[in-house]
Design goal:
- The complex is a heterodimer of chains A (78) and B (151).
- Chain A has one domain.
- In chain A, 31% of the residues lie in helices and 13% in strands.
- Chain A has 2 helices and 3 strands; from the N terminus they run ββαβα.
- Chain A starts with a strand and ends with a helix.
- The relative contact order of chain A is 0.21.
- Chain A has a 3-stranded antiparallel beta sheet.
- The longest helix of chain B is centred in the middle third of the chain and has 10 residues.
- By secondary structure, chain B is mainly beta.
- Chain B is 7% helix and 42% strand.
- Chain B is built from 1 helix and 11 strands; from the N terminus they run E-E-E-E-E-E-H-E-E-E-E-E.
- The chains are: A alpha+beta (78), B mainly beta (151).
- At the A-B interface, helix 1 of A face strand 11 of B.
Chain lengths: 78, 151
């Protein structure tokens, strides 16, 4: 899972990771830069950073469907 | 406004230095204090015939001088040998990074821009009458500090 950087992040090693400028594509990181001895601890710290507004989950790319197919799917759901 | 419950001492602070701003050496175990520079902005003033007070204009941020107190040790990788080696290079480049509340996710981490060690005593003051650990202080001149978050 990728996360968009919204505020400066200073990993334990490496340079500061800065958010993208207004006209730049978003800077993303994965959970491996987040501290944590176990996957559960790391997941909790990811949530902490999301709550603090430091990172945000990257939106899932929309499936490649045509407008017609989407409309048909919506109709079928109704 | 209610009194804060989130004030802390410096007991968990982490201090790190780097010669490239990327590879960091934790010197918390052999340093005792860091005093950040004043963080001043250049300003100018002018008086006009009309009005009583001055017009004040804001310029750019000034360079800062931060001082770091370290213990004199002769162990490789500790504060003295790491900083002395940085000072001994032709550029004396040094970046400093402080994490006041400790390296825990969500805490602030303040990092200097690329700085220069401007003063570094070759060794600590030697006083036969003192029982204190030998310590010295060095100065880094640098652009401001950047606030980041510990991930």
């Amino acid at each position: 899972m990728k996360y968009i950087v919204l505020q400066n992040i200073a990993p334990d090693q490496g340079p500061i990771i800065r958010p993208a400028g207004p006209d730049e594509p978003p800077v993303t990181v994965d959970e491996t830069i987040v501290r944590g001895e176990t996957p559960e601890e790391r997941a909790a710290n990811v949530q902490k950073l999301i709550v603090l507004g430091v990172i945000a989950p990257e939106p899932e790319p929309e499936p490649a469907t045509t407008t017609t197919a989407r409309k048909a799917a919506t109709k079928a759901e109704e | 406004m209610s009194q804060t419950s989130t004030a802390y001492s410096a007991r968990n602070s982490v201090l790190e230095i780097s010669t490239d701003g990327s590879s960091w050496t934790n010197i918390s175990g052999s340093s005792s204090s860091v005093t950040p520079g004043d963080g001043t902005r250049l300003t100018g003033t002018a008086h006009t015939f009309d009005g009583d007070g001055p017009i004040i204009t804001a310029g750019k941020l000034d360079a800062q001088e931060s001082t770091i107190s370290i213990l004199y040790t002769e162990t490789s990788g500790e504060a003295y040998e790491t900083a002395r080696a940085a000072f001994a290079t032709a550029s004396s480049t040094l970046y400093v990074r402080s994490t006041p509340l400790g390296a825990t996710t969500g805490n602030f981490r303040h990092t200097t821009g690329k700085g220069v060690i401007t003063a570094f005593p070759q060794f600590a003051e030697i006083d036969a009458a003192s029982g204190d650990p030998m310590a010295l202080e060095f100065t880094v001149q640098h652009p401001g500090w950047t606030k980041s978050t510990v991930p």
